[in-house]
C-alpha cells in the first residue's frame, strides 16, 4: 500500500511539474506575442506611410513626426523593447518562437545603434530622402474615394511641418559634425527645383486631380482639385523653396570634404557596426575588403574566358571600351529599352515553375524612373507591393542617358529587380502565414540583395545568357558587386579617395562611366549598404553547394528554394540553420 502511495505521489509530482512547465511555456509565448503586437503598433504609429502601405488606414492623413524629441523617445522605447525581450526565457519558447525572438532582438538593437550613432541627423543621401520620395506620394497611397482624396490633401498640407523638422535634424547634424560629403551633393538642385512650380498642374503631386475614379460628382472633383492646387501652392512649393534655400545657404557650405564614414564622429566604430549590420555577419572591414579582392580576381578570369570566346583581338581594357562605345549594344529610345526588358521578364515568367514550387500571387509591373531623380540614380530599382494587396510591385527602369544602359546587361538586371529576384522574394514574404507581422516586412539587406544577385545566376539554369555578350554582362554585374566589397571598405575605412574607387571600378567592370560615378557617390552617402549584395549571394551559393554535395541525387532545387524563401528575409546565420534543417529532412525522405 505504501509503495502504491509512493507511486501515486511520484505520478502526481510529474503531473504537477508537467502542468507547471506547460503553464510557463504558455506564459512565455503569450508575453512574446504581446511584445510583438506592442512593437508593431508602435511602428505603425511612428510611420504613418508604412502603416498605409500594409493596409492600416488609421493615420492616412498624416506624415511622420521628425523632431529631435521624437528620436529621443523612439530610442527609449526601442531600449525598453529589448529589455522586455531579454526578460523572456528562451527555453520556454518553441523553436519557431526562439527564432522570432532572436530576430526581434537583433532588429531592435540595430535600430538603437542607428540612433546612437546619429544616422537620423543625415536623413538624405545623394539619391534619396524625404524630398525625393514625396513627389511619388500619389503612387504610394490609396485614391479610390472621397475620403482617400481628403487624406491625400491632408498629407500635402502636412509636408510643410515635415520639411521644417527634417531641416532641424540636419542643422543638429551640422552642429555635431554629422553631415554628408560635399562631392555627393553636386547637382542636388535637380531633386528640389522641379517641384517649385507656379502652376499647380505642373507638379507631380497634381496627378490625382487628372484621373478621378468613376463615380465622383463634378462638384466633388472641383472641390478636391481646388484643395490639391491650394495645398501645392501654399504648402508644398514653399516647403521645397525653404529646403532649397537651406541647402544652398547652410548645408552645402557645411558639407565635409572627406568622403569616408571614418571621418564622422565615432566614425570607425560606426562603420564597423554598419559592416555587421548590412552583412548580418561578425566580420571586419579588412576581411570584407580581402574577400572582395579575391572575388574580383576570380570573376575577371571568367570574363577573360568570354572575351576569348567571342575572339576579340585586344586587351581587357580595349574590350571594355568596345562594349561602352559600340552602338549595337544600346537602345535608341526609352521605349525600346522597356520592350527589351519586358520580353526578358515574360520569358522568365514561363521558366519559374522549373525553379520554384511556391510562386507569389501578387503581380509586378514596369515603370520609368522619374525625371527629377534619374540623373542621380542607378540603372533600375524595385518598389515592393502594398502589404494589403492594393498595389503591385514595380520595376523602375532608368531611361536617362541611354548610352549608359547597355542591352547586354538587361537580362541580369531584370532577373535581379523583378523575377526571380526582388519581386518574387518580397511578394512571397509578404504573403507568408504563420509568422509575426514584423517578419513579413523585415528587410535584412544581406538576404534581400543577396537573393537578388543569386537570382541573376539562376538564368544560367533556364536558358538565359546564351549570347556571350549577355553572359559578359552577367559577369560584369557580379564583378560590380564584388568591386563594392573593395571600394566601400576602401573609402569608408582604409582611406581610399573617390578617384581610386572610380578607377578601380572602371578597370574591372563594363559599367559606363556615368553609372560608375553614380554608384561610387551612392556608396559614399550610404556607408556599408553596398556590401550586402555579394556577401549574401556568396552565403546562398555556399549553402546550395553544401546541400547539393550532401544530398546528391536527392537534391531538389525547388525544395531548396522553398527552404530559402519560406521564412522570409532572415539574418544569414538563421538562413544557414534553415538549410541545415532542410538537408536533415530531405535525408530522411
Please outline the helices and strands.
Elements: H1 2-46, H2 48-53, H3 68-86, H4 95-116, H5 130-133, H6 146-176, H7 218-254, H8 267-279, H9 285-309, H10 316-325, H11 334-355, E1 364-368, E2 380-383, E3 393-397, H12 410-417, H13 422-430, H14 437-440, H15 445-458, H16 468-492, H17 498-508, H18 513-525, H19 532-551, H20 557-565, H21 572-588
Parallel strand pairs: 1-3
Antiparallel strand pairs: 2-3
Helix pairs in contact: 3-4, 6-7, 9-16, 11-12, 12-15, 12-16, 15-19, 16-17, 17-18, 19-21, 20-21
Can you put this structure into words, describing what you see?
The chain contains 21 helices and three strands. It is mainly alpha-helical and 589 residues long. It folds into three domains: 85 residues, no CATH class; 128 residues, no CATH class; 271 residues, no CATH class. The radius of gyration is 26 Å and the shape is globular.
Amino acid at each position: 500500500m505504501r509503495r502504491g502511495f509512493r507511486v501515486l505521489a511520484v505520478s502526481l509530482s510529474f503531473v504537477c511539474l508537467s502542468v507547471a512547465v506547460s503553464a510557463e511555456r504558455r506564459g512565455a509565448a503569450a508575453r512574446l506575442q504581446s511584445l510583438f503586437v506592442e512593437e508593431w503598433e508602435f511602428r505603425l504609429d511612428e510611420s504613418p506611410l508604412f502603416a498605409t502601405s500594409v493596409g492600416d488606414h488609421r493615420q492616412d492623413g498624416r506624415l511622420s513626426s521628425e523632431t529631435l524629441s521624437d528620436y529621443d523617445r523612439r530610442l527609449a522605447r526601442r531600449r525598453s523593447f529589448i529589455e522586455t525581450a531579454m526578460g523572456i526565457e528562451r527555453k520556454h519558447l518553441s523553436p519557431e518562437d526562439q527564432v522570432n525572438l532572436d530576430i526581434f532582438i537583433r532588429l531592435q538593437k540595430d535600430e538603437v545603434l542607428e540612433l546612437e550613432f546619429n544616422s537620423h541627423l543625415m536623413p538624405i543621401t545623394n539619391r534619396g530622402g524625404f524630398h525625393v520620395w514625396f513627389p511619388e506620394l500619389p503612387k504610394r497611397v490609396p485614391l479610390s474615394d472621397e475620403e482617400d482624396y481628403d487624406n491625400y490633401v491632408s498629407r500635402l498640407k502636412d509636408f510643410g511641418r515635415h520639411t521644417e523638422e527634417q531641416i532641424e535634424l540636419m542643422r543638429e547634424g551640422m552642429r555635431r559634425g554629422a553631415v554628408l560629403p560635399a562631392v555627393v551633393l553636386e547637382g542636388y538642385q535637380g531633386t528640389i527645383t522641379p517641384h517649385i512650380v507656379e502652376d499647380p498642374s505642373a507638379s507631380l503631386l497634381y496627378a490625382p486631380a487628372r484621373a478621378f475614379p468613376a463615380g465622383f460628382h463634378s462638384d466633388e472633383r472641383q472641390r478636391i482639385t481646388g484643395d490639391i492646387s491650394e495645398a501645392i501652392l501654399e504648402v508644398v512649393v514653399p516647403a521645397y523653396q525653404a529646403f532649397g534655400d537651406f541647402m544652398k545657404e547652410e548645408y552645402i557650405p557645411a558639407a565635409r570634404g572627406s568622403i569616408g564614414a571614418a571621418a564622422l564622429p565615432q566614425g570607425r566604430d560606426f562603420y564597423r557596426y554598419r559592416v555587421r549590420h548590412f552583412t548580418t555577419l561578425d566580420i571586419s572591414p579588412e576581411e570584407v575588403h580581402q574577400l572582395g579582392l579575391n572575388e574580383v580576381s576570380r570573376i575577371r578570369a571568367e570574363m577573360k574566358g568570354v572575351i576569348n570566346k567571342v575572339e576579340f583581338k585586344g586587351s581587357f581594357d580595349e574590350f571594355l571600351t568596345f562594349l561602352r562605345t559600340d552602338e549595337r549594344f544600346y537602345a535608341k529610345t526609352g521605349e525600346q529599352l522597356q520592350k527589351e526588358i519586358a520580353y526578358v521578364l515574360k520569358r522568365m515568367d514561363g521558366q519559374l515553375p522549373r525553379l520554384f514550387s511556391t510562386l507569389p500571387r501578387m503581380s509586378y509591373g514596369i515603370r520609368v524612373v522619374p525625371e527629377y531623380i534619374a540623373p542621380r540614380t542607378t540603372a533600375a530599382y524595385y518598389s515592393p507591393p502594398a502589404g494589403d494587396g492594393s498595389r503591385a510591385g514595380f520595376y523602375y527602369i532608368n531611361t536617362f542617358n541611354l548610352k549608359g544602359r547597355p542591352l547586354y546587361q538587361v537580362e541580369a538586371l531584370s532577373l535581379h529587380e523583378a523575377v526571380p529576384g526582388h519581386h518574387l522574394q518580397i511578394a512571397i514574404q509578404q504573403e507568408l502565414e504563420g509568422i509575426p507581422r514584423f517578419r513579413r516586412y523585415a528587410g535584412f539587406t544581406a538576404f534581400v540583395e543577396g537573393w537578388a544577385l543569386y537570382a541573376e545566376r539562376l538564368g544560367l539554369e533556364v536558358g538565359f545568357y546564351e549570347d556571350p555578350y549577355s553572359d559578359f554582362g552577367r559577369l560584369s554585374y557580379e564583378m560590380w558587386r564584388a568591386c563594392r566589397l573593395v571600394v566601400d571598405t576602401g573609402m569608408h575605412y582604409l582611406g581610399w579617395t573617390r578617384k581610386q574607387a572610380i578607377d578601380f571600378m572602371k578597370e574591372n567592370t563594363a559599367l559606363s562611366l556615368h553609372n560608375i560615378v553614380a554608384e561610387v557617390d551612392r556608396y559614399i552617402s550610404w556607408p556599408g549598404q553596398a556590401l550586402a549584395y555579394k556577401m549574401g549571394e556568396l552565403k546562398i551559393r555556399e549553402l546550395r553547394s553544401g546541400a547539393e554535395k550532401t544530398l546528391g541525387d536527392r537534391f531538389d532545387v525547388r525544395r531548396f528554394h522553398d527552404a530559402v524563401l519560406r521564412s522570409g528575409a532572415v539574418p544569414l546565420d538563421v538562413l544557414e540553420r534553415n538549410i541545415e534543417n532542410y538537408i536533415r529532412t530531405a535525408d530522411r525522405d
